[in-house]
Here is the input.
Amino acid sequence: MSTREFTLTELESSDVSTAEEAFHMDEAAFKTFYERTSRPLWSYLARLTGDRSLAEDLMQESYYRFLRATLKSEDAAYQKNFLFRIGTNLARDHWRRAPRGERVDVAATEKLPADDRTAERVQQSSDMGRALARLKPRERELLWLAYVEGSSHDEIAEVCGLRSKSIRLLLFRARRKLAGLLRSSGEEWKIRV
Amino acid sequence: MKIPHCHREQEVLDAVRSGRWSGAWGEEIRTHAAACPVCSEVALVAEAMIQEHHLEEADVRLPSAGLVWWKAQLAARRSAEARATQPIALAERFAQGAALLTALGLAFWQWPRISGWLGGVTKLAGGHNASSAVSGDWTDRIGRVLQTVAQGLGGQSSGYLMIASVGALLALMAFAAYVVLREE
Here is the structure.
């Protein structure tokens, strides 16, 4: 696992003169990387922004910036964290730029259920959406990375641009908040033991 | 602030993420979580989030890697083009400014002659007395405007305008020579 922090130069590097020089990986390597990271990145951005199509746009922009950046390591975990960091920054930029009225509420973006999905699961999903919508964007970032991506505290710190030591407390608070919201939202989310 | 902690927290999370949690193999860890407030909270949140993730991911159709690669290449090419043409655009603006300043200096320097020439042209065109008076009027007005511009640029003296325009002319010539030599 990579624990080194990203430098500003790495994140904003664009000193390339031609399109051919621009990318640090070839098409075949990119396809492998994309297959491995696109769905997790999209899910993460969709939960962060609450907008599926915006998540797709941000995802594509993240890959574009990732390809043009100068990476200091070939390590797969490092590359994935770097990509997520770009995506996180793009989502935050969007969040800052968007007027309050245009911000999409996570709970309002109801997903269309597939035919074989049960009503219970859809209900659970909308409960979860509402609960997540009541969290701060940073809390959503932390929880998603920790519990869905299984990232370590060091990796979360890299992606979110926070100090590694503060992750434990922030994650604990976010978890407690979400658990409280889920418990109050209904019977479905009671722990199955 | 003291953070409640359980040494099996990570084990619970791993069990939920791997799917072992709901199976027969997860019975022991489930029993532990039922009695441990920290682990029960971890399991509750992790289960909810992972289930949400699976439900959401099942419906999504993402663009292919080839399409994203192609779009990224296109964007990089556009960006490279914009960077490459930026000096040309700047040089064009500089040349326009220098040419304008040169023309202004030239007009101010040779205004009596230009004014006389314009008056001659009006007479040759067979203008009436009234129209020649009008043309004399506007040439005088341009002359006054030039004087004002020269004073604005150089304070008391119009000599600054001449110096500036000669400088601009020289810079324009040097720039043109550089472009020609570089092309060759």
In short: Residues 86-183 of chain B form one domain. DSSP finds seven helices and no strands in chain B. The two ends of chain B are 74 Å apart (CA to CA).
